[in-house]
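Exercise 7. Given the encoded structure of a 227-residue chain, write a plausible sequence.
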């Protein structure tokens, strides 16, 4: 009996770890057109030196963030190191793609704004992409804890702006015609966690009753023999 209770207690201790062991995915997408003024990113395979007109762009960034992050930075946004990101950048039909770890990742909300940014090492150079998604006046949709699940796009009354910098020499800043924001929790929601805990307790009670019945059954032959 004590061994059974110890196993149940150990399982209860491990339950919070199992509920928070998986990461959260933060995905942002924005697209539109921008005016280019001799901005060059040749190391990314994007050369806009000959462009003197508005060019289309599309940026998709998806980060996996560990849910055991230590806390928020001075902006109230979670800051993590070595997180995984996939990035696809298209400007004027020229594409740059990256999938791998980041030097730093920022994600989270402070009231009406949601921040999502990455700092990536590309050899001796660095690529920095930072976006701010907000709500129009009178709309309050990006609130709550930094990484609670949410799924929004421009139809929900949000806007996005971004800054793209490469090695602090070239940068692009632009508005967005269309944008979307997704925060997807890959762990059970709190309600699911409570259900799992309740189920575990029920299993424990069933096990205790089964063990109790087994012990009574084991004692009954000896009691008959004593008579």
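Solution.
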């Amino acid at each position: 009996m004590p061994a059974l209770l110890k196993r149940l207690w150990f399982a209860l201790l491990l339950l919070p770890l199992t509920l928070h062991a998986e990461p959260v995915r933060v995905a942002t997408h924005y697209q539109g057109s921008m005016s280019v003024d001799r901005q060059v990113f040749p190391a990314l395979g994007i050369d806009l030196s000959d462009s003197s007109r508005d060019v289309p762009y599309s940026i998709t960034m998806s980060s996996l963030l560990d849910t055991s992050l230590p806390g928020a930075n001075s902006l109230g946004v979670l800051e993590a190191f070595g997180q995984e990101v996939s990035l696809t950048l298209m400007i004027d039909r020229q594409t740059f793609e990256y999938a791998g770890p980041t030097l730093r990742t920022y994600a989270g909300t402070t009231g009406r704004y949601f921040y999502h940014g990455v700092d990536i090492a590309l050899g001796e150079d660095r690529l920095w992409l930072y976006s701010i998604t907000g709500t129009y006046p009178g709309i309050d949709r990006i609130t709550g804890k930094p990484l609670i699940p949410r799924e929004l796009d421009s139809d929900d009354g949000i806007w996005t702006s971004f800054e793209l910098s490469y090695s602090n020499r070239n940068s692009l800043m632009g508005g967005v015609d269309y944008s979307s924001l997704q925060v997807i929790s890959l762990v059970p929601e709190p309600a699911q966690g409570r259900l799992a805990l309740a189920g575990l307790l029920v299993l424990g009670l069933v096990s205790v009753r089964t063990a109790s019945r087994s012990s009574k059954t084991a004692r009954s032959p000896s009691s008959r023999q004593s008579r």
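Remark. The chain is about 25% helix and 45% strand. Students should compare their own answers with the one above.
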